[in-house]
Amino acid sequence: MDQGRLTDQAPADPGAADEVLAHQPVGYWSGLVHEVVTRRLRDRMARLDVTQPMYWVLNRVAGDEEAPAREDVGAQLTPLAEGPYEIARVVEQLAYRGRLRVGARGELYLTEEGEAARVRLRGVVSEFRAEVHRGIGDEEYVAALKVLRRMVANVEGEAP
Q1: Which pLDDT score, from 0 to 100, does residue 160 have?
Q2: Between 118 and which of 19, 58, 100, 108 could a Cys-Cys bridge form, CB atoms 3.0 to 4.6 Å apart?
């Protein structure tokens, strides 16, 4: 879009022709992508009786050489969660299911069952990612993310 010229925004239209896409609302499209991708991924995880936040916690605990503290895991993952208590609940659920062990000082360890679940889930996520990215090269994907990142910066006042 020419920065010196304002144009009207077209109404959200999933069937919009290419020549009018520049006038489509990014909030609609980014929201639609988020909703569809998240719902489908969570549906696939549900088949394994696991939630997406459980996967986040398993990955986070596995990602440290030293056992992370419960508080550190919560602080890192809460911004992704649906509310301030979700990650704490997930830690309890995973411990109850035998996938996490909580140490005496609150440190978290993956059990063998937890690691096996994490590996199974990584396969599900990798297959799903390949499906989502079908027909989209890495350069095109990176360009799309850079545009979205720039839009966030523009709206939050961080743009140069």
Answers
A1: 56
A2: 58
26: amino acid identity, one letter: V
For residues 133 and 127, what is the distance between their CA atoms, to the nearest angstrom? 10
A 10 A CB-CB count for 100 gives: 24
State how far the Cα of 14 lies from the Cα of 130, in Å rounded to an integer.
Answer: 23
Measured CA to CA, the distance from residue 27 to residue 72 in angstroms comes to 32
Q: Which neighbouring-strand residues pair with 102?
A: 108
Mark the ranges of the chain whose per-residue pLDDT is less than 50.
1
Q: Nearest-CA neighbor of 86 among 96, 100, 74?
A: 74
| Alpha-carbon gap, residue 20 to 12, rounded angstroms | 10
How many Å apart are CA 100 and CA 82, to the nearest integer?
A: 21
pLDDT per residue as tens digits for the range 23-48: 888 888 899 999 999 999 999 999 99
Identity of the residue numbered 30: S
What's at 107, amino acid-wise? Answer: E
Question: Cα-flanking dihedrals φ and ψ of residue 69, to 5°?
Answer: -75, 145
What per-residue confidence (pLDDT) applies to 9? 73
In whole angstroms, what is the distance from residue 36 CA to residue 22 CA?
22
CA distance 109 to 99: 9
